[in-house]
Amino acid sequence: MMKHLILFFIFSVSGLCADLAQEFTNLKNATTHINDSYLTFAENNSEHIWGQLAFLELAKINILTENFNKANDYLVKITLPKISEKYFWETQINLAQNNYREAIISAQKFIMKSDDFDKIEIAYFFIAEGYFQQKMFKRALNTLESLRTSEYIKNEIPFLYYNMGNCYEFMGSFSDADNCYKKVKQVAPHSDVCSLADERIFQLQKNNSLKFEEKPEIKFEKIETLKTKLPIPTDGKIYYQIGAFGVEKNAKNMWKKMKDFKLNSIMFTKTKNGTKLFVVAVGPIENDLKLKEISDQLKQININGNRIVR
């Protein structure tokens, strides 16, 4: 289980108690007894912004461990209007408990009150998921389309087009769905979500046109929002993942391509959302400096990837 959790947020510290701010910072850097330390600090300073932020951290930790009722109890204690992030995490609790209407309302409140563009982007996905789970596919699509044309879309473009494709597919607009899935391949050709898009394109071509009951495997692709930083295993080796493919032949072609460039690489399988993927990664790599050299080299031939340890 996770030993420590580092969560970041931005708030103005102008005019706030410097001692409490420092104490709160020390709590965030702690590695043991996190729950007890946060709870004591929060209860002793419950009317102060730093005490209420401690309640927010407690809520996040409990969401991570799927203790949603306790997480919600902590969120209720947050009463300061400026802590709009409360609604972001409240939305996730509602989604996890299948309270989709409440999730939509919480996400809308967050968008109205927050200036955190990254989280607002994700909140749009939360709203779309709330509609999608209620089979209100047109509303889900309209939400995603609003995000697509907004100033907030930045980090999750592949997920945007993949989920738009899902909506179109359930609505019976198979040509539009196919276009969205192909857009995923254009913007993120070596990503996991690209492999999912490949599978949907394959099924559309295989069946020519699909009926609603023939595709229960499609589901709204969620974004991991609670980022944790765990210790890297000391016996782990560094690799640079350059592709995750739904078709083994495509993975082997990428592996051979790396061989042509005289780069050692491995191929292994993993399962994501019930789909078997064939992963290609360059390595093992000596250190992060060498990894950057390899990354820069591959970018010259339009191959991007990410660092993994295995």
**Low-pLDDT sequence parts:** 1-20, 210-217, 225-235
| Alpha carbon gap, first and last residue | 18 Å
Basic shape:
globular
Instruction: Work out the helicity level.
Output: 55-70%
Mean pLDDT: 78
How many helices? The count is: 13
Strand content: 5-15%
CATH T-level fold name of the largest domain: Serine Threonine Protein Phosphatase 5, Tetratricopeptide repeat
Strand order of the largest sheet: 2-3-1-4
| CATH-derived architecture of the largest domain | Alpha Horseshoe
**How many strands in all?**
4
What is the CATH class of the largest domain?
Answer: Mainly Alpha
The largest β sheet comes out as: 4 strands, antiparallel
| SSE pattern | HHHHHHHHHHHEHEEHE
Describe the structure.
This protein is of the alpha+beta class. The protein has 3 domains: 95 residues, Alpha Horseshoe (Serine Threonine Protein Phosphatase 5, Tetratricopeptide repeat), CATH 1.25.40; 55 residues, no CATH class; 72 residues, 2-Layer Sandwich (Alpha-Beta Plaits), CATH 3.30.70. It is built from 13 helices and 4 strands. Strands 2-3-1-4 form a 4-stranded antiparallel β-sheet. A hairpin with a 2-residue loop joins strand 2 and strand 3. Helix 9 packs antiparallel against helix 10 and helix 10 runs antiparallel to helix 11.
Write the layout of secondary structure elements.
Elements: H1 18-28, H2 34-44, H3 49-64, H4 68-76, H5 85-96, H6 100-113, H7 117-133, H8 137-148, H9 157-171, H10 174-187, H11 192-207, E1 238-245, H12 248-260, E2 265-272, E3 275-285, H13 288-299, E4 306-309
Antiparallel strand pairs: 1-3, 1-4, 2-3
